[in-house]
Specification:
The complex is a heterodimer of chains A (354) and B (246). In chain A, helix 3 packs across helix 4 and helix 5 packs parallel to helix 6. In chain A, a hairpin with a 2-residue loop joins strand 9 and strand 10. Chain A is built from ten helices and twelve strands. In chain A, the strands form two sheets. Chain A has an eight-stranded mixed beta sheet with strand order 6-7-8-3-9-10-12-11, sandwiched between helices. In chain A, strands 2-1-4-5 form a four-stranded antiparallel beta sheet, covered by helices on one side. Chain A is of the alpha/beta class. By secondary structure, chain B is of the alpha/beta class. Chain B has a domain of 145 residues: Rossmann fold (3-Layer(aba) Sandwich). Chain B has a six-stranded mixed beta sheet, sandwiched between helices. A two-stranded antiparallel sheet of chain B has the order 2-3. In chain B, helix 3 packs parallel to helix 6, helix 4 crosses helix 6 and helix 6 packs parallel to helix 7. The two termini of chain B are 27 Å apart. Classes of the chains: A alpha/beta (354), B alpha/beta (246). Chains A and B meet through helix 6 and helix 7 of A and helix 7, helix 8, helix 9 and helix 10 of B.
């Protein structure tokens, strides 16, 4: 077992709206990432993925507020630190964050080299400019970016190139955790591939110690990360290795999500896509019972009153459902109710044996 | 500059035809020509066996009754000053229900909304920006359901929404095709999507079709380097994804 790089315990954060109504966007997330491993977070729009990414940095600004929980980066708890302290000591050095529109962060009047200097001096580097330049050139080379990029302005670079440049700059201090929130979604498939290749090189060469990758594209997660967690309505509903999650999902929501995968491979054309009806619940007033109950084809009355806890099964996997894993697998192999929303026969008796 | 260079193709009733290519290959230009939004420099378009005639505004409107688009960006597809009702009412007027009774119109709009899993009663009096991207795109399909055109031109209709709503929307498009026997021209850069939905695939590079045929032939056994590269660029789950092959 490797050293734990990032451990999050029961993290809760909220948005405060104009009318002082709270939206509990991250509601009790726990996770653990060891050195050299990566975790993917999947889920549909509005389930709290991006809020989780922001919350993990420990840098809170209105309307996002910290409620409770721990964020332990390599043994140091950063939850509850003052924003200024987080900015100086944690961001960039311990945790780097890449949002979808990272490429828009480049100031068009500055050369790429100036950004590198900026990052270094903002974190108290004592290196000379020429030394920084040398280091940046070496790092760019290692990551497959031509060093000439350093002498260019942002407007001279293509979208994919800008995104890769920002990734290279934001990881220049070799952070322990890289949080990438849809880093390739705004790019076309060829640029996306280059971005993914770069993230993999960063991991392999040890420039980043661990990574969290957020996206709704499951084939991408499957190829990039070691583990996958599926998020729904501010909570994780299932967690396991990428292989287990794609080919053997247990939670009904994860099952539905995996059914929406589209890949150009033989045999996938004949299988109909599964769509999950409805929309996620409003997190101003989270449902009392299971949050997925309203959309779940297998829900029974108890689901609406009893909120399930995260349960462990077969080693390291976890899921959040009242039904037992055995029961869920039986239901899936039955095949009925998957697309039509009809309940398989006898499901009403299948209340959890917990 | 030649964006679309002497392409020949034909679409049949009830078919879903995909045009796949990377950014800048001329897919959208082609779709705009078919819609009659851009004039054609050279060549001839035939619609239902006759040369297409959109020389006057009236003829153009007549043509648009038969061919309707869904665009990539649902947020840019609506006039934000018009309520959702008026979007749907316009469709009814265009199909010649201008003099129908109010109750009849509401019935038809309710039916269209329920076809795409939206509730008309909740939508009425709302503005488009009050909906999510997926809902807006579904409302676009409700429009198509009301108009029942012969051809639907879907230009990247799912590239801006998440994978989950994408499945819902593809499902609805297939259902609509089965019910109305319309032809769907599906423009996309996502080869996995094209493989799933189409009856026929055209691969487009620099304004030309480089390969075409049944999805199983083109995508599982590609002959052109360009097609092979497009396929190698997308992540897979059953075969390893070779990141170094560029």
């Amino acid at each position: 077992m490797g050293k734990v790089m990032l451990e999050v315990k029961n993290l809760k954060t909220k948005y405060v709206t104009r009318f002082h109504e709270d939206v509990f966007a991250v509601d009790g997330v726990s996770l653990k990432i060891e050195e050299g491993r990566s975790l993917g977070i999947a889920g549909e729009s509005g389930c709290g993925k991006s809020t989780l990414a922001l919350s993990l940095m420990g840098y809170y600004f209105a309307p996002l507020h910290y409620l409770s929980g721990d964020i332990i980066v390599d043994g140091v708890n950063i939850a509850g630190m003052k924003p200024d302290e987080v900015r100086r000591k944690v961001l960039g050095q311990e945790i780097a964050y890449i949002p979808q529109a990272a490429m828009n962060a480049l100031n068009p009047t500055m050369k790429i080299n100036d950004f590198v200097n900026d990052v270094m001096y903002a974190h108290g580097s004592k290196m000379k400019k020429s030394e920084i330049r040398e280091m940046a050139e070496a790092r760019f080379n290692e990551l497959g970016l031509p060093p000439e990029v350093l002498d260019k302005h942002a407007v001279e670079l293509s979208g994919g190139m800008k995104q890769r440049t920002v990734i290279a700059i934001s990881t220049i201090l070799s952070p322990k955790v890289l949080i990438a929130d849809e880093p390739s979604s705004a790019l076309d498939v060829s640029s996306q591939k280059l971005v993914i290749r770069m993230m993999r090189q960063l991991m392999q060469k040890g420039y980043i110690k661990s990574m969290i990758f957020i996206t709704h594209e499951l084939p991408l997660l499957y190829n990039v990360t070691d583990d996958i967690a599926v998020m729904y309505a501010g909570q994780f509903v299932e967690q396991g290795t990428a292989n287990e999650m794609v080919f053997d999902p247990v939670h009904p929501y994860a099952k539905g999500l995996m059914g929406s995968i589209l890949v150009p491979e033989a045999g996938t054309r004949e299988v109909k896509l599964t769509a999950i009806p409805g929309t996620p619940p409003n997190l101003k007033h989270p449902p009392e019972g299971c949050r997925f109950a309203d959309r779940c084809p297998y829900a029974v009355p108890t689901c609406r009153s009893l909120a399930p806890e995260m349960k462990t099964f077969s080693g390291n996997r976890e899921y959040r459902c009242l039904f037992s894993v055995k029961k869920l697998r039986e239901v899936y192999s039955d095949g009925t109710g998957r697309r039509s929303g009809e309940k398989p026969a006898g499901i009403d008796e299948l209340i959890a044996d917990q | 500059m030649t964006a679309v260079d002497h392409v020949d193709f034909d679409f049949n009733e009830g078919e879903i035809v995909s045009i796949v290519g990377e950014s800048g290959s001329g897919k959208t230009t082609l779709s705009k020509m078919l819609l009659g939004l851009i004039s054609v420099t050279d060549g001839q378009l035939y619609f239902q066996g006759k040369p297409r005639d959109i020389s006057s505004r009236r003829k153009k409107q007549e043509y648009w009754k038969n061919i309707q688009p869904i665009f990539q960006d649902p947020f840019a597809s609506y006039n934000i000053f018009h309520k959702i009702d008026s979007v749907l009412l316009d469709c009814l007027n265009m199909r010649g229900f201008r003099s129908a009774s109010n109750a009849q119109k509401v019935d038809m709009m309710t039916e269209a909304c329920s076809f795409v899993n939206l509730k008309y009663a909740e939508l009425t009096n709302k503005y488009p920006f009050e909906l999510s991207g997926g809902q807006m795109q579904r409302l676009m399909i409700a429009r198509i359901f009301l108009l029942k055109p012969k051809i639907l031109m879907a230009d990247e209709p799912t590239s801006m929404i998440d994978a989950c709503s994408r499945a819902t929307i593809l499902d609805m498009l297939l259902k609509l095709r089965d019910e109305t026997k319309m032809t769907v021209i599906f423009i996309t850069h996502d080869i996995g999507l094209a493989y799933y939905i189409s009856d026929k695939v055209y691969i487009m590079e620099h304004g030309k079709f480089v390969e075409s045929g049944k999805p199983d032939d083109v995508i599982l056994r590609p002959t052109q380097d360009y097609t092979k590269r497009l396929i190698s660029d997308v992540p897979k789950i059953y075969e390893p994804w070779d990141l170094d092959a560029i």
